[in-house]
Amino acid sequence: MSDAPATHQMDVPLVQVENVTVRRNRQDVIKDINLKIYPGEFVGVVGPNGAGKSTLVQAILGLLKYQSGNILVAGKPPMSKEVFGKIGWVSQAASHLPKNVRLTVREMVSLGLFNNTNWFGLGRSNTARIGEALRMVGIEHLESRDVNQLSGGERQRAVIARALVSGADFLVLDEPLVGMDRASRTSLLKLLDDFCHDQNKTIFMISHDIAAMRQTAHRMIYLEETIRFDGPPPNFPSLEELALLRGIEDVHGGHHYDHAAEHCGGGDHSKPVIGDSLKEAE
Known about the structure:
Layout: E1 15-24, E2 27-37, E3 42-46, H1 53-61, E4 68-73, E5 87-90, H2 105-110, H3 124-136, H4 152-164, E6 170-174, H5 182-199, E7 202-206, H6 210-216, E8 219-224, E9 226-231, H7 239-245, H8 256-263
Parallel strand pairs: 3-7, 3-8, 5-6, 6-7
Antiparallel strand pairs: 1-2, 1-4, 8-9
Helix pairs in contact: 3-4, 4-5
């Protein structure tokens, strides 16, 4: 799934971030960020808690002021009139509705179309766009169901449809895999990858799931205050290399295995690292 289209290098960047620094309480949260994202790319951003991943997203969306540098989306500043509708944001909280709120899937998706020009109703063309967005994420058969009755994977597809219904070409997702079972995660990641290959959508996704990003993204970024790795998934650092990038020293002085054998009674109690356990590597 992680093969990127070969034409990206010839494209004009959809997003360009140059020397951006964001400070909070007089401390740099992200520093000297340089980044270009091309149409059709699936970019996975990983890093530890507090590394600045959500801060970077909010700066790109224009929700956070940056102290230095410059950000352009489709050649324009974030939040400019020309950019409106081109970015679909799926936040961590997007799929969590209070249980006393009653919305059908179609109603939820329609919220992505409302703006200051159509508060009093959506026209026929917009109704068709809602149907198309539902079809794109494969949940048109659920359009009349209460959102609170959906599974985690179905609900995440509904909020992605809400982001797509405006015609967005750039989808920004913050931890969309949280709370999903394995089958739902795989299905959603395949859907996002298909968007890139079939519709030239651009995906910028934050995740703690390094294993999932290595299997899905065309490109991975490791962020911890600044970008410490940016490249194809097969070149992503090993656990030992990540420790060095983060400045974490081996407290055993290179004698891990001697200590492990001592504490485990001399036997080999190791287990293969599979699936979700790689998430803890950060």
